[in-house]
Amino acid sequence: MRVMAQMGMVMNLDKCIGCHTCSVTCKQAWTNRAGTEYVWFNNVETRPGQGYPRRYEDQETWRGGWTLSSRGSLKLKAGGRVQKLLSIFASPVQPQLADYYEPWTYDYDTLIKAPLGDDFPVARPKSLITGQNTKISWSANWDDNLGGSTRYGHLDPVVEKLRQESEQAVQFELEKTFMFYLPRICEHCLNPSCMASCPSGAIYKREEDGIVLVDQDRCRGWRQCITGCPYKKIYFNHKSGKAEKCTFCYPRVEVGLPTVCSETCVGRLRYLGLFLYDVDKVTDAATTPDEGDLYQAQLDLLLDPEDPEVIAAARRDGIPDDWMDAARRSPVYALAKKYQVALPLHPEYRTMPMVWYVPPLSPVVDLLAEQGHDAESKDVLFGAIDALRIPAAYLAELFTAGRTDIITHVLSKLAAMRSYMRDVSMGRDGDPSIPAAVGMSEEALYEMYRLMAVAKYEERY
Amino acid sequence: MSVHDGYGKVDGPATDALLKAGRFFTKWDETDDERVVFREGGRAGDVFYRDRWSHDKVVRSTHGVNCTGSCSWKVYVKDGIITWETQQTDYPSVGPDRPEYEPRGCPRGAAFSWYTYSPTRVRYPYVRGVLLEMFREANKRLGDPVAAWHEITTDPDKRRRYQSARGKGGLVRSSWAEAIEIAAAAHVHTIKEYGPDRVAAFSPIPAQSIVSHCVGTRFYQLLGGVMTSFYDWYADLPVASPQVFGDQTDVPESGDWWDATYLMMWGSNVPVTRTPDAHWMAEVRYRGTKIVTVSPDYADNTKFADEWMPAQAGTDAALAMAMGHVLLKEFFVDRTVDFFTDYVRTYTDLPFLVRVDDGEGEYAGSYVAGKFLTAADLGAADPEDAWKTVLVDDATGEPVVPNGSMGFRYAESGVGRWNLDLEGVTPALSMQGESSEPVELLLPAFVDPDGAGSVLRRGVPTRMVGGHRVTTVFDLMLAQYGVPRDGLPGQWPSGYDDVASPYTPAWQAEITGVPAEQCIRIAREFATNSEQSQGRSMIIMGAGICQWFHGDTIYRSILSLLILTGCMGRNGGGWAHYVGQEKCRPITGWISLANALDWSRPPRTMIGTGFWYMHTDQWRNDGYSADSLNSPLAKGHLGGMHTADALAQSARLGWMPFYPQFSTNPIQVAQDAQGAVDDGSAATPGEYVAGALRDGRLQPSIEDVDDPRNWPRTLTLWRSNLMGSSAKGNEYFLKHLLGTHHNVLGSENPKAPRPRDVRWHEEAPIGKLDLLMSADFRMTSTTLLSDIVLPAATWYEKHDLSSTDMHPFVHAFTPAIDPPWEAKSDFELFHLLAQRFSQLAETHLGVVKDLVSVPVQHDTPGEVSQPGGRVVDWRDSDAPGTPGKGMPVFQVVERDYTAIADKLATVGPLADSLGFTVKNVTFDVSEQTKKLAGINGVMPSGAGAGRPAIDTDSHLAEAILMYSGTTNGQLAVQGFRTLEKRVGKTLHDLAEGSEEKRITFADTQAQPVPVITSPEWSGSETGGRRYAPFTVNIERLKPFHTLTGRMHFFLDHDWMHDVGESLPIYRPPLDMHRLFGEPRVGEDGAAQVTVRYLTPHSKWSIHSEYQDNLLMLSLSRGGPTVWMSPADAERIDVQDNDWVEVLNANGVLVARAVVSHRMPEHVVYVHHAQERTIDVPKSEATGRRGGMHNSVTRLLVKPTHLIGGYAQLSYTFNYLGPTGNQRDIVATVRKRSQEVSY
């Protein structure tokens, strides 16, 4: 066992309002400069939707992440590293500007400076790349709130996949509408494929906290990392010629401030904290043969900071006591491991991502309402999980490599929390059979409620 | 496991060997399989981002915008440059078991600093070149700026030249001195030539930046100018609130959502429109609170719902009426619930007696509901007895006149008795019983989609009381909702599944599309939850239901659900109306200083909708008369009247204000009145005016509104983007008010009804305004149209105060930098203008008297001057009217126009001698004035010599806080002690212990500060509880400010009866085909589709104004859009992002389509404030710039909103007035050529 500390984040998608404040504060702080106009270290996607850059999840096209060789060993999806080394001068497989979007501005000056004419002056869009007039046809968030769904919705790789299984899956009709938001930053993976793709060794994982950074001095702009990252969270600064990415706000984290995206999250859905993990077991976990077991394998990597063996090993491996304290109080550990309601994004990429998500509940479908059931009552509570508008299969494609049973179990815990707490907030005794039905104690369910609902600043970070 | 077990698991041995060699010379820590490179980060790590993060200081400020966020922000500054902003997180805690207010904010706010240095920033004063040249020339030649202004504006050619140049570019840089001189000259000239009531100004929403609003308003009220309203103009005012509660609006802070155990969101898209508050809604679910949304589309908030009730747009009242049907039947008739019954007996008008009158004409032999029975009807003879409503004691069957009605509010006999204490009486809810006589009652209904009325026949039990046949409001309600009881005549629903009978669940399903079963179940759950939780069912209500023409009826039908179940006045229960921003928490200081009540009274305030409807000549394009809204049972009070006539009558009767007042300059009127008093021909100036109106020597301006003598002449806009945001009927503004190019597509319909009392000119005026001036920090539709544009400081460049209804704190704006370039704060602007104005006034105006005409006001004794809500028009009699009784109040005010600047900068003496009054509670502020003088210092000389200085923005902020009970505990306690004398119940304990607490401006700069419980508002924060409205009324038996002193289901005013809205009711959206000849909704075979045109707030604009931010545009579609359903798009062969044109008689909009299945058919969303400044090409339909969201809207004035002079239906600024609603509009969408030109 070799214990390492890793900064992690959990986002509770059940609370995300899709406001994009995180994206804006991040951009304002980090990337509102020449060369990174199109870059959003943090972005928020409406799902179903294509994401940013478009269809980044389509690894058949973009070749990001890891795959298993026939011998069961890890290899970069884009090809072995020698192959990459030998082909670094060739244009790598990576999204083009059009797949992100062509950033633009407007000739705002006209509004002030227009000479007397015969109509209102207007600010026209101008490309920030070419400086020419442009018609805006794509943006970093074009399909926000299902905009253009009937034209583009089928291009969502998850929709595409589910429809291959059943033509009836995910229909774009008013009555069947569902949506949720997926905020994304760099995953600061335990097994980062960007790093493995870099011919210059410019990408490194910080020893003390696992934050993955691009060394701006070492980067030679080969852009292999962009291909390598299956989340497409490394960007090419077209002015400096270097790769840039989310830094987990290390200049803030180092002095005890939360990341900008976390602190400014209006939905109060982001949690920051330490994970302890066994670095020696990462490769093994990442080579778990069955994709459906990858979540569990990743979960198993996370070490219990209360475990005396872990404590001893951590001390041996130079993890200071205050970091151990932080690990014990870590809300991300609580949500991921203790309550097991947070899940990794696309575990099948085998990068062992460290930004996890609590999947969202959603309204019940009309059918249930028409029949006059009360989805809130505990008698129909768990039955209703299957009748939620967001198909479990959709969430499973994002978070569990297709395992709907895990999704259903997590949603049941959220539903149980609500059902149990209803009695409490109505001044009645809590019903212990409710937490028991999802394998939790009353105390644990209540603690989880405090963390997810009351969620004080000090408890989130 | 050894590390070597992992060896070979990445790629293969050969690869590893090769790579190892490649990395031989570089030393770093990596996993043994070379999969991961570790390096120590620490302080030695990548410096680039560390440098980027550095800054010199962080300043607390906020955003002065009408979004109710009132979020405190950290503004980062480096090298004197604002770099970015993030939210403050230091709000005082709301308790250990609750989520906190941190971090309040939204992406729009986070992107705000972009404006500081953006290319759209207004850096210098600008004047339209055509005008500037003429002015410079004339000023030089004549040597007097006022004479120059006179010459330019009275020369028709010159006037035309610069008016028609508005909005067409050609702004040239000027200086502050010059721009201010032109403005000052225009103001002096207008007052001199036409009168101060031709000087108009508009600046909305004081709470968003209290000082900035206050200073400009104060300037205009010192002049005697006209401030037009905003809350009603924005259609944010729920008229149901004054109707039902006698209160403008009062709502829970969002932290109180946490107390709700059943939460509905009805027409309110919380994540978008209340972004910083939405988390409470998401979080309360985890307490087991059920969430239900009602919206026509799959709205953002539906994501959080347990259930979605997809009611078709505008049909919400049908759903609410059916829910009310279920609730009345199951919780009031089949079974009764003490919690509900006790509540409605004490706090509502349900037990009060209503006279049942004989039907007339074709309805003879049946009965109709009449007026409330009063003590006067029972023979009591004091004037106040006509204002005392009556109920029956359940125990004795005898009539009782309980405390608390309006008859106890002002009369000497009511001292100590204006309360809801029933003193042991149990009111009878129904007249059923031994002496009861059932009769068949006629009730109006509007079930036809074209809006035509019909009549329902349903029985009520009656009794004879004092010789009058009466029933109760409760009995009327059961009849109205169609809840049958044994032994009553009439036609009743056969059951919930009776499709044909209003207002059953099955009946509503046909209209709304919501399944009857769902309607029944949600109604049951809602009421059951209230019963079990003692009133903790809450409904968040929003613009999606408020901003309809019949928004008041929609609201009343929903409020009924809350009132019947005992939810109003509860923490966690009741209505949560979040549309606009009504809550300036330090209200007394703000409103008194803004209206300059310390120097002169009364101020001139105006209903915005009435002002714009008349002065932009939208009334000339009305296709219907006021009585086309009537019920078949109407008695003709609105008969033959045009809506303009209704406005004229309302003004004539002293119900609503109208300015200009008379076609004669009010300075002249004051002089004439004084002459009449002096020569003995009139006892008072008021008597003179009444007589002159009677014999026609004076003419109300509204009655010939298009005569040049009656035009508004100057309009100043600050903190406002009127032309790019709220101006419904935008193209009419351009045409008639401004006199420039426009896209009005329809022509005036020669067959449209002509007004009876308002004069019709064959040619409508083009260009009424002499001057449009605006102050802003960015270029908007408004600045583009302005003659003078002044560069304003941004929200990060000035001192100011912010508050909101959503949280209980006041906090500060603080300058992060000085205003750059030549920008100045609003405070500086108005002081400069006042100084130059005062100088020019020396020769042109001097000291004069001004006759001010104002309506009778709510919360003043004037509201008990017209008993019974009867329309009595003095014009129908031979005698002159009596000022203040069915006629406006006329008051002479002295104005020293040379001292405006001095007065602006000091607190005047009337503060001490008359005190400041809010909601009929007068605060003696003489002590506060002394304290303020100590803090701010006094002015050494001039008109305000020796008086407290309010000569800087922070001094004014200090004064506002000093004079308000919410921020000055001494005043809060004093106010409660004053109030409790009238009420006769203990109230001062609500603020006791806060006497020593005074929130200073410095306090608000340090941290957001929670306010003090004060009689200025209806709720209580005492003991650290969350604010919920009306808790003081419910817990302390303090009456609502209504006729009965209770919440009203029944409104008995003549006009309310005539339009059939005396009880909660469903009215369909306006049929624009019937009323205006617009196409019917749906497809018509041509390549176009007619749709309901809705303008909700955008996710990507800072509330209702700022759509031009590059960050927001980059995250969205980058320009104007029309959201539409796939079916509608297919009908016109439109794909996502295709250019389309949306048009009707009012104008045209060019935008790109967003096609999404979350949209219902036959409805489009054109988000608010999509202005013509960003990416708007020329229109195919007109060849001109393709409009903005309000180009296809127009004003539709509901006559019942004009009722005044009658208890809670009396005017107060922003409290009651016609709404500028816009939801009923329909428009036609067409695909256009995809080749666009600009």
TrEMBL record, chain B:
Signal peptide: none annotated. SUPFAM superfamilies: ADC-like, Formate dehydrogenase/DMSO reductase, domains 1-3. It catalyses: nitrate + a quinol = a quinone + nitrite + H2O. GO terms for cellular component: nitrate reductase complex; plasma membrane. Its cofactor is [4Fe-4S] cluster; Mo-bis(molybdopterin guanine dinucleotide). The keyword Ribonucleoprotein does not apply. Pfam families: Molybdopterin, Molydop_binding. Its main location: membrane. The keyword Transport applies. Residues 56-120 form the 4Fe-4S Mo/W bis-MGD-type domain. GO terms for molecular function: 4 iron, 4 sulfur cluster binding; metal ion binding; molybdopterin cofactor binding; nitrate reductase (quinone) activity. Keywords: 4Fe-4S, Cell membrane, Electron transport, Iron, Iron-sulfur, Membrane, Metal-binding, Molybdenum, Nitrate assimilation, Oxidoreductase, Transport. InterPro entries: Asp_de-COase-like_dom_sf, MopB_CT_Nitrate-R-NarG-like, MoPterin_dinucl-bd_dom, Mopterin_OxRdtase, Mopterin_OxRdtase_4Fe-4S_dom, Mopterin_OxRdtase_prok_CS, MopterinOxRdtase_cofactor_BS, NarG. This is nitrate reductase (quinone). It comes from Branchiibius hedensis.
